[in-house]
Every structure is written in structure tokens, then in C-alpha cells.
């Protein structure tokens, strides 16, 4: 007995499978054995090391964040638009939830669809329409800490 499957059904199934792979790839899972969050939802704290330390833990030193540029630390982007002015943002693109992958030539860049953000988190180039979500950071001595 043969079963006929419509092209539409095959394409719909393939699309769902690719979407699941994309969500898994963009979820920022860790090698520490913790579960990756689904659809970019925050995870409950765990005993496993996290890529973005909780409030008060050092994310980077001030020397590691160049003036007029920035660095990505786990799921946090740290920038220094002007000397001594440090800002923090979520490293999750507001377009489709991909993790941002670089800070170059004065913009924070997303590898998935080409969105670019300024060092202040504003959209420079879409398809993203919303700015990056701010993350509270502060300088304590030579360290930049969450919180």
C-alpha cells in the first residue's frame, strides 16, 4: 500500500524541522550540561557556570572594552561609545532571537539576517526594528559588573 504525501505537507514538515534547528542553534546552549532556554526565554539560575554572570560578578575589565567599540561576553554586549562611558545590552537580536556575533566598525552585528546596531543599542540597519534590550552594568574599579 502506498501513501501519497502532498508537496505542501512535505515542505511544511521540512520548514518545522528547520525552525527547530534554528531555535536550537540560536538558543545559546552551554557545554556545561545545562538546558538551553527555548525561544530566548530567561532561564532559572542553576549551579552550572553561566555565560552571563549574575549581578555583581565581573563581566570584563574596562581595558577589554575598546573606546568606540565593544565586546560580546556570553549573552551580554558591552560597549564604550565614548571614553569612560560603558553600556550593556542583551546579545540577542531583537529581530529573530539570534545571538549577535561581533562588534566591528562601530556596530554590533547579527549573523542571521544582517541587522546592525549602534554602540548605544539603536538599530542602524534592519530587518530589526527594535533597539537592543539594555542590561544594567556598572564600573567597579577596573571591572565592569552586571547590576
Automatic annotation (TrEMBL):
Key word Metal-binding present: yes
Q: GO molecular-function annotation terms?
A: 2 iron, 2 sulfur cluster binding; metal ion binding; monooxygenase activity; oxidoreductase activity, acting on paired donors, with incorporation or reduction of molecular oxygen
Write down the required cofactor(s): [2Fe-2S] cluster
Comp. bias regions, Low complexity: 44-58
Q: Where is this region: Disordered?
A: 29-61
Span of domain Rieske: 56-146
Pfam families membership: Rieske
Its Gene Ontology cellular component terms are: membrane
Region forming the signal peptide: 1-24
This protein's record includes keyword Iron-sulfur: yes
Q: Which PROSITE patterns match?
A: PROKAR_LIPOPROTEIN, RIESKE, TAT
Question: What domain of life is recorded for the organism?
Answer: Bacteria
- Which key words tag this protein in UniProt? 2Fe-2S, Disulfide bond, Iron, Iron-sulfur, Metal-binding, Signal
Instruction: State what this protein does.
Output: Iron-sulfur subunit of the cytochrome bc1 complex, an essential component of the respiratory electron transport chain required for ATP synthesis. The bc1 complex catalyzes the oxidation of menaquinol and the reduction of cytochrome c in the respiratory chain. The bc1 complex operates through a Q-cycle mechanism that couples electron transfer to generation of the proton gradient that drives ATP synthesis.
In Swiss-Prot or TrEMBL terms, this protein is called Cytochrome bc1 complex Rieske iron-sulfur subunit
